[in-house]
Batch of 3 targets.
Target 1
Amino acid sequence: MCTAGNENWYTQWFDEEYALLYSHHDHVEAEQAVELAKSLAPELNHGVILDIGCGSGRHMLAMRRSNSQCFGLDLSATLLDLAPNELKSSLIRADMRHLPIREASVAGIFLWFTSFGYFSDTENKEFMKSMSRILQPGGILLVDYFNSAYLEKYLVPHNSVERSGVAGTFYRVIRGGRVIKHITLHQLETNTVREVVESVAAYAPEELQAMARDAGLRTRAIKGSYDGEPFDVSSLRWIGVFEKFTD
């Protein structure tokens, strides 16, 4: 479960400072990730695609080069406002636990950059089922998640970065089955300081696949990087591609 007091951390963190600190995850990375998705599931080039947790839309931009029916959904009004004007009409502000989408109306769903595991186990499982409900039969779900085994072995407990006038100090711990980051943010120009928290469930690959299976999704492919390398215990990422069972 989420640590007491941190249950709604995602409503406080995804803002301009988040965008600045994570700006090294850029459009080049997004294009590489989307190309991998399309190679594993070419049907993503057609039909309605929903990028959940889309942020400012970097993966959407890459996907819309081959499929103009890619839409984005995010709870953060700030990140949605940072999206390019060409995407504005294709963005939805909503809580991913309450998808405002008709059942069986979507051909594909993306969850990039660990946009899964924010909530309690019960809510995470229900979110997986809700994604399955809006997928068409044969529809594709891609989950881009960290490799929990690698993270547990090589966790960096403390580091600092500075980008675009924001200094961030990160303290990480794995506790109660969750990866928890305590982050101190220092605006260098104004000398203001604030603290935020991230808390994401540390699911093992077999747990993610079991959740997907229980939601009516079968595994098509598992990869360990955006280069398409096979997944193993040394992989930084766990990228699962699932398809909805057909009757």
Target 2
Amino acid sequence: MFTRVALDHGLNRFPKEAAGVASGNYQPGAIAVNSSQGAAIWTIARANFTMTTNPDRNLTAKGAVMEFVELLSRWAHILSAIALVGGAMFMRFAFLPGAEFLSEENRETLAQEIRKRWSKVVMAAAGFLVLSGIFNMVMTMKTWELPKFYHPVIGIKMLLGIVVLLLASMLVGRSPAAAKMQKNLKFWLSLNLVLAVTVVCLGGFLRTHDHVKKQPKQETTVNVPESNE
């Protein structure tokens, strides 16, 4: 049902692109339509539905599965980032100011209970961020022609992301080093939040490049003349 809505929505939103493939063979609700003008391919790789025509590509079962996996990976990456950044904002701007009205003993007890529960979310989000980030980067480099600024920016984004994950882990950890950092929780939360927002902004900047698909490499053959010996 979801794929049907996606394709029908795409055909309605992009009538010019769909005109080349709606030559009588298209039936509403179909996932892909082959016609003499090209093949209709639906993609949900971004926030909006898009419809493109490509005469050299058919949406095979393998291709549909890969597109769905890419979509799940992007969802996992975005939701994990929301959890970490949102959690840091809550701790910095809601929990710390609110906890100042508690006694030191009650404040420490509450902080321990929160860390005990929040640490599981941090570890899960960190794992999803790393795995989905690597997968998304590989697929992007494999699929698109990338501008020169892409690699330096993605490198900075990855380094800052590692720092953010390490700080988030330390702020919910139980080691002596973690306990020492947690005594100055306000400073480390503020620093981690600034770095996390910077990572998100860099990720948004990387999405602004022109999306031009890589052309498949064409094999060249060299004819060697036969010797008449």
Target 3
Amino acid sequence: MMGHAGMAATVVRYLRSVGAPTSATTPATAGRTGRAAVPPRPALRAVREGERAPLDPAAFRAVLGHFASGVTVITAPAPESDPPPVFLGEPAPASLAEPAPAPLTVPAPEREPAPAPLPEPTRLTDPARPIEPARLAAATPAPHPSGTGANGPAGFACQSFASLSLDPPLVTFMVARTSTTWPRIARAGVFCVNILGADQEALCRAFAVSGADKFAGVAHTPAPVTGSPRLAGVPAWIDCAVQAVHTGGDHLIVVGRVTALGTDPRAAQAGPLLFHRGAFGHFTA
């Protein structure tokens, strides 16, 4: 592991490579103050000048499409000033103008045993402090309301999710800088990763649509720590707080600190929902 001296040496080498001074000097213009002039900061870029390869974006996507991946839905809670959300199957409060949608029911097979209770979620603690929502919101454009869905919880289908660190427990996902959902998640400062099962393709497609009320008719409950929507029937979920956000070309790299997680063994029996070359599929052993 690189120590402080090694990191300092790496910084010095980088500053020299970009032509920035590595020590402070006192120019003649400093006058009587004797203060050292602040060296100019080098321009930091996610992509260097001339580094872009001459690739056709369509060809780039076609080649990378050969990489099969799982699919998730990233969700975040509604702003605190909003009225409490109405979950599927619950009666609507009298103050709401429109009634809640009728619950969707699926007849159970005869003499089917009652499902076993879900295991208690695992809560995790980490000494590293996540980004405060106020700081994150200050650097994030305000979202523009686009209907009732804009005032409720936020969510979008995400293919680019991965685990990042075991100690401390961190996960990451990538989101386009043009996303209209990300500013709402950023302002919440928390999110829940819902890992989709093989039978949840329709749910994934609903959250891949922009501008609609994605939670209409979707059953969900609050995640135990952040309150982010935990979608019903997902094989696994991960409750997180935003730890860091980095730039990566036309995307943002979001790092989340895991605060709680859990699985539904019964839902996991169907296997994961996979995405490969523009089509959904499932895993067969």
